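Re: your question from the hallway

Yes, I did run it. Sequences:
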Amino acid sequence: MSPAVRLHQLVPGGKIAGDWFAGETPRNIIVGPNCLLDSTFTFKQYFSKAAVGLRLGRDVTLWRTSLATEAQGVIEIGDQCFLANASLVCAERISIGHRVMIAGGVTIVDSDFHPLSVLERVGDTVALSLRGDRHHRPPVTSRPVHIEDDVWIGWNATILKGVRVGAGSVISPGAVVTRDVPPGVEVQGNPARPVGAPA
Amino acid sequence: VISLPQDWFHGGVPDTVRIGADVYLDSSYAFGGMRSTRDPSVILGNASGVYDPSALLVGPDGCLEIGDYSIINSCTIICESSVVIGAHCLLAWGSVIADSWDGGAPLAARRLSMSQRHGEGRWPVAVLKPRPVRIEDHSWIGFGAVVLPGVVVGRGAVVSAKSVVREDIPEYAVAVGDPARVVRFLEPDDHECRHTIDRYRRRPS
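Structure:
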């Protein structure tokens, strides 16, 4: 491998030598053997207070990826997954199976992060302001996201709350996935619709 | 490795990157995913610009060419064989140009490819044969658009924001949506552009 690509062993509760970002990996994570990442910037928005906020299998690669969690959020990623320049934003639970490929610009969220009600959104802007209290926000619904084994997610695709993507399916680049995707199909577009089975 | 002055990223620019005259580089972060063993691996034309956070992901056998005055404004370029971007092109933020995408490969091949990733050499290895991409002179790729393998975006064309380009776009076309469809054509008023280039060049003081 070219020396330009620098990946480091992911160890809980530590710094990375030569990291451009002055951060640390969190302590409340469980990491399988031989997981690599490029920078602790991955955890800049990681605020999980769960006993285990992130669980990684073995041989997982995180490159320029953001694992953002709220206090109750839990992210699980299986063996041999590759995440390049993706954003996972998690209020409750995002679970990803084995050998899942997530390309650049992908966003996966398990919540809308604000209420739908207009009045409650007014309240949320106040709660989030310097005049409010971030710990007393209006209630927001979240629904877990499940990505099953051998799923491939193309560049700039978006996966929204409550979605389950079935094993082996392909999310075409640019797709916006709002509903469950059955196993073994390819979906495309906004909203994403099946375009047939992958080869 | 070439060091840029005051670079916030410590990776440096690989010395197989040919940098033309008056090239603007925000930092060497764009080259943090370079794996090319070719020389040259990347050619940056005169007065072109690469802005953070771009990712020029040139694979072991890839060669990426960016023409004079083209602006790469936080883009991801996947180049396993050949990506050629012409002169005076605009690539907006979040756009992706890729000559390799394995979503169409058989499940067994994809599974094998993922399970072979161990150790340091675990960067994705293309399953399907890469198909070169060409973005011709004077074209404009909108923000968040994706240009897929084998595509030629013709001279002067516009690909609108968030479009997904799956087939060739003709010269001077405006293309919209996923899959990108041509909705109109622009006036080809750029055949003699020397005067315009001179007009906007900074005068020597």
